[in-house]
Design brief:
2 domains; glycoprotein; 4-stranded mixed β-sheet; Carbohydrate sulfotransferase; 17 helices; EC 2.8.2.-; about 50% helix; single chain; transferase; alpha/beta; 6 strands; two-stranded antiparallel sheet; binds 2-acetamido-2-deoxy-beta-D-glucopyranose
Length: about 350
């Protein structure tokens, strides 16, 4: 534990030494976020760093390959196209791509609920020095919709010139368990009297109840999800929508894909790549923000416990429902489900 922290500290120190170089690079390359990876530092990258870069490259390649294999790799042609195919990406009649954006810093992110979306928001609006320009009261929650933070369709057409576009993904089953735990915890067991059979009879009621922070058994939640239209049903919360539907990775060329399972490392890399390490350390040094990011690693066991209650056939059906996320983001059902 202590040793890990020490390693992390020295790594952070090293990264901060590169900050100046990074800032200079960032300022000069801001409008050229092609496939190039980290800023070219004076030092040759270590094997570990090369491995990390290969992993990031592989994440992008995988998405491209899966989208091509399913014949989904294409660009939206119009607002109507976005509305028709990816409602979550459209916002109001003005038609905006739902990427939260720190415009002056040219950073844009798609928010996947229950996939470190608060960390992503922090990275967008708290880490950069212009954080004072953004209202961080009630309005900074991912649910808020301040259209000035979105990307106009024209920017999409031109490939978001000058913007670094990223998203952070997570194992689909871990997202579901995380959402379930959140909602049930808030329910505080106050609604235990609600009859389970009612939920089973009408899956919409089950989902609506959980959405409203009422207690619902986990297996009833999963059964309700299985029959729901996860893309379009008004009873299906953002937390439960497949990430590929929310962020359209076959239609938007993301510069970077982070993973909750590796979020500490990935966020440090993001800061490095955008020349914001100093800022990040300044903010996270006296802020519990960084600690929240370790949740991913410790979640494996409790996710397994929840899924131990679910029948094999339901687990398989759920997998089928979220299969595209598994494929696109390189997750394995066996990581979080005990197969016996
Ligand atoms: C995190 O990144 C390291 C280095 O790239 C890799 O070895 C490790 O497997 C990753 N962990 C997860 C859970 O992706
Ligand atoms: C939306 O963001 C802009 C710029 O950050 C800010 O000026 C405006 O007050 C915000 N709107 C709301 C409703 O919070
Ligand atoms: C659940 O809601 C959807 C969408 O409103 C509706 O089409 C469906 O019939 C409902 N199912 C039940 C069992 O009420
Ligand atoms: C660090 O934060 C303090 C106060 O929050 C601020 O005054 C200072 O300018 C920041 N330093 C850097 C390098 O961002």
């Amino acid at each position: 534990m202590v040793r890990q922290k020490k390693q992390k500290c020295s790594k952070l120190l090293l990264l901060s030494c590169l900050a100046v170089i990074g800032v200079i690079w960032y300022r000069s390359k801001k409008s050229d976020y092609s496939l190039s990876m980290a800023p070219r530092a004076a030092l040759a990258p270590s094997n570990e760093e090369l491995e990390q870069l290969n992993e990031y490259r592989a994440r992008k390649e995988r998405i491209k390959e899966v989208c091509q294999r399913h014949n989904m790799y294409r660009r939206f042609s119009s607002y109507a196209d976005v509305f028709r195919n990816h409602n979550p990406l459209a916002q109001g009649r003005t038609g905006r791509i739902r990427l939260r954006t720190n415009h002056p810093y040219g950073i844009s992110a798609c928010l996947i609920h229950k996939a470190a979306s608060n960390t992503v928001i922090s990275f967008l609006f708290i880490i950069p020095p212009n954080r004072k320009d953004y209202y961080l009261g009630n309005n900074w929650h991912p649910l808020s919709s301040n259209t000035s933070l979105l990307q106009p369709f024209q920017n999409y057409i031109r490939g978001f010139p000058g913007y670094f576009v990223f998203m952070v993904v997570r194992h689909p089953f871990a997202r579901l368990v995380s959402s379930y735990r959140d909602r049930v915890t808030h329910a505080g067991g106050k609604n235990d009297d609600v009859k389970t059979e009612v939920f089973y009879q009408n899956p919409n009621i089950t989902l609506e109840a959980l959405a409203n922070y009422k207690w619902v058994p986990f297996d009833a939640f999963i059964k309700a999800l299985l029959v729901a239209d996860v893309k379009d049903s008004p009873y299906v919360e953002w937390d439960w929508k497949p990430a590929n539907y929310v962020c359209a990775p076959c239609n938007i060329d993301y510069d970077f894909i982070g993973k909750v399972e590796n979020i500490s490392q990935d966020i440090i890399y993001l800061a490095q790549r955008l020349g914001l390490e100093k800022e990040m350390m300044n903010v996270t040094g006296n802020n519990p923000w960084m600690h929240r990011t370790t949740e991913g690693d410790s979640s494996t066991n409790y996710v397994k416990q929840y899924f131990a209650q679910i029948s094999k056939s339901d687990i398989f059906a759920l997998y089928e429902k979220y299969k595209l996320d598994f494929e696109l983001f390189g997750y394995d059902i066996n990581d979080l489900v005990n197969q016996s």
